[in-house]
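Dear colleague,

Thank you for sharing your sequence with our group. We've completed the structure prediction you requested, and as agreed, I am returning the results in plain text so they can be pasted directly into your records. Please verify that the sequence below matches your submission; if there's any discrepancy, let me know and we will rerun it promptly.
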Amino acid sequence: MIKNLLKTPVGRLRLLGYLEGTTLIFLIFIAVPFKYIAGDPVLVKAVGPIHGLLFLGFIFITLSVGVEQQWKFQRTTWKVLLACVIPFGTFYIDRLITKDQASETGG
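Please find the predicted structure tokens below.
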């Protein structure tokens, strides 16, 4: 399945969205509470930079795919960009937008 996702730009966006969303949820619901309850920031220090790179990559690839697929910014691109700052947003947007785009392009 992962091989199929990597074949198309929309597929790569979907995979990156899954990874970015997973790290965001981990940070918000596990790492940050652990930092404040246990007083140990080790998880935030480990996962935070990884999430930051995935976040930046998601934004870059979203804009790239948006241009390549000729997404209308007001209709599609901004929704995908907004999804990466809302917990569970990338999973939701995957179902609504990118999955439909992938099926149209064969990815």
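Summary note from our side: The two ends are 11 Å apart (CA to CA).

Kind regards,
the structure core
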